[in-house]
Write a structure and sequence with these properties.
With about 350 residues, the chain is α/β, with parallel strands linked by helices. Helix content is about 20%, strand content about 25%. Strands 5, 6, 7, 8, 9, 16 and 17 form a 7-stranded mixed sheet that branches. Helix 9 links the parallel strand 16 and strand 17. It starts with 5 loop residues before the first strand and ends with a strand.
């Protein structure tokens, strides 16, 4: 009989690089029966049971041999993909993270992950101890929200609006507004008294933004030119642009943004998945119109996790259904490759999450 301390682990490993090509399931390999021994945990280590896994576009960079700014350890072949997850500690060599503690952390595309050096404040794991009420789903807030609306996407939306210092009565344009970040940016901005315009890639997503998520206007960027759409939906111009798209859309916004407008550069999804970089032509307009562009990296703003501001602000809005957060949850770690590829191809609306196990 197998020992209860010896666990079978199914994981998704990086089989090959896509580099400048489109990502396919050929870049992934599912392996099973990789055993985890709970009694082998060392001081400063924890072993966690992964419950939910976030699928995020930034992981695309780990499929490039050069990898941009991602650490080399995130790009190694034949090891599990690195991803943000919700997990429960099942074996611990650290007093900071006892058995049964509920965490979000950079774990792996696998059922169980061994995290080393967790007592080192400079570790790469991004461990966050979740509040006790995270377990309570009776108020209508699922645990999976702690890697979506109450996790990294939520922090990116919440802190990004603070960096922009948005003011009521102004107009904000949100690129990729139907995604895990953009949908929350728009709804939080509405809560703060702004006019909100968004773009999305299907008519269904556009309708959902307006009818279910309270955007003032939205358009399908695949069927309507951005310049034309913004002239129609924001005839007085836009004051802020929350940019996760980059490329040609950013170039257009530089032409139409109001004087002293502000742009937050969070990502450049239009330049990812093997696409050629778009040459920005309107940079001179930054000076001409006094436009400010702010770069944004979410881990520069972790204080909103630590001080509880994100949870205290967003969770009550979710409970009262004043924010409608859209996410798609799929079962089974073995299905992560298919859903990751579909996510990059824009086939899903909202945040994409893999459920690995029940709490």
């Amino acid at each position: 009989m197998a020992s209860s301390n010896l666990l079978s682990n199914t994981r998704v490993v990086r089989a090959s690089y896509a580099n400048k090509s489109r990502v396919t399931t050929a870049q992934f390999r599912v392996e099973t029966h990789q055993d985890i021994d709970l009694t082998s945990v060392q001081p400063g280590e924890i072993i966690v049971r992964n419950l939910y896994l976030s699928l995020d576009p930034y992981v695309r960079f780990t499929l490039d041999e050069t990898g941009g700014d991602t650490p080399a350890s995130w790009r190694t072949l034949n090891v599990p993909f690195y991803g943000l997850g919700i997990c429960e500690v099942v074996a611990s060599g650290s007093s900071k993270y006892p058995v049964h503690a509920l965490l979000s952390a950079n774990t792996g595309y696998e059922q169980y992950t061994r995290l080393s050096g967790v007592d080192n404040p400079n570790n790469e794991h991004g461990i966050r101890v979740l509040p006790a009420h995270a377990r309570d789903e009776s108020t209508g807030v699922p645990l999976s929200n702690y890697i979506s609306a109450l996790g990294m996407p939520g922090l990116t939306a919440f802190a990004g609006l603070k960096v922009l210092d948005v003011q009521p009565g102004k107009t904000i344009f949100v690129g990729s507004a139907a995604g895990g970040v953009g949908q929350l940016v728009g709804q939080l901005a509405k809560q703060q008294g702004l006019t909100v315009i968004g773009s999305a890639g299907t008519d269904e997503k556009v309708a959902y933004l307006i009818e279910k998520q309270n955007f003032d206007g939205a358009f399908n960027y695949k069927t309507e030119d951005t310049r034309t759409a913004l002239a129609r939906l924001a005839p007085k111009g836009i004051d802020y642009y929350y940019d996760t798209v980059g490329g040609e859309v950013l170039d257009t916004v530089l032409e139409v943004i109001n004087e002293k407008g502000k742009i937050l550069s969070v990502g450049m999804v239009s330049q990812e998945n093997g696409k050629e970089a778009y040459p920005i032509r309107n940079l001179k307009l930054i000076a001409v119109r006094g436009v400010s562009i702010h770069g944004f990296i979410y881990w520069h703003h972790l204080q909103y996790f630590e001080n509880g501001d994100l949870d205290a602000t967003v969770r009550p809005l979710l409970e009262r259904k004043q924010i409608n957060y859209r996410q798609e949850v799929f079962d089974g770690i073995e299905n992560a490759p298919e859903h990751f590829v579909n996510m990059l191809d824009g086939k899903y609306a909202g945040k994409v999450v893999i459920k690995i196990a029940d709490l």
